[in-house]
């Protein structure tokens, strides 16, 4: 029997990729996209899905997760809810904290309530963020020639790292994170939290405020200005969207083990990249010429270092990244080159 999937934010970067994966399975999955289409790339991603798959194979509800009655109606028949909708940028949260809170905290609460009240006890996957750990001031970092790195956290930050919401975005996503965990403890809803690092891949219309790796590739290819905030040595672990979707699939398939759990989800220590001191030369090599950049001060909530210890997901879900940093970056670069008309 086909499972009913509700993907909030289903026309976004991660959402459209996951919808495409589900639809490629044929009758195994019935998919509903729930999206307010507010982000610039969403209408383009939705059009791509309509061109790639039979429009009759999926449903589209244009709605906002802040609309409690509407998301409740959308969730009535769902077996699996993948909650990706919300405000996604730290900088936007600083300039408009109310909208950020309503989109992320209230939107997640509404979606959880929709799941609970559906009476179907659906599996609930929540895309959280590494920003729930804040600046991790208790973790000593060391500066090298091209990057910062943790002094003692060899494998990266574990799920036991204390929460320290920093920035309105960290607070709003962290609120959702904790609500999702608690709906398992209080109501028995089979929920899973993924605290995601930098996810990248095709269909990502990155902008300066969010999706930095895709944004820099897009800017380099199209000749736009790139601004480096801070010293450019700040380090992130990057994870290709295909690997992230493998983790979603693994959690859904092993929900009896995964329910109520939190997993750090990133490329780990083996897929770490300094945002410009290391990525800049890599991008210049792909482009075949130097890339001029502007410089500016650090931005609020910008961690010098974050990379995830994903060993819990490896132990419990049998998951680990398969796409290397170099391979994934080259794949995204080629996608941007082939789709310049979209930017």
What does this protein look like?
The chain has 343 residues and is α/β, with parallel strands linked by helices. The protein has one domain (3-342): Rossmann fold (3-Layer(aba) Sandwich), CATH 3.40.50.720. It contains 12 helices and 15 strands. The strands form 4 sheets. The chain has a 7-stranded parallel β-sheet with strand order 3-2-1-4-5-8-12, sandwiched between helices. Strands 9, 11, 13 and 15 form a 4-stranded mixed β-sheet that branches. Helix 2 links the parallel strand 2 and strand 3 (58-62). The radius of gyration is 19 Å and the shape is globular. The protein starts with a strand and ends in a 5-residue tail after the last helix. The mean pLDDT is 95.
Descriptive terms for the model:
343 residues; seven-stranded parallel sheet; 15 strands; single chain; four-stranded mixed sheet; Rossmann fold; alpha/beta; globular
Strand order of the largest sheet: 3-2-1-4-5-8-12
For this structure, what is the CATH homologous superfamily?
Answer: NAD(P)-binding Rossmann-like Domain
Strand content: 15-25%
- How many distinct helices? 12
Summarize the model shown.
With 343 residues, this protein is an alpha/beta fold. 39% of the residues lie in helices and 20% in strands.
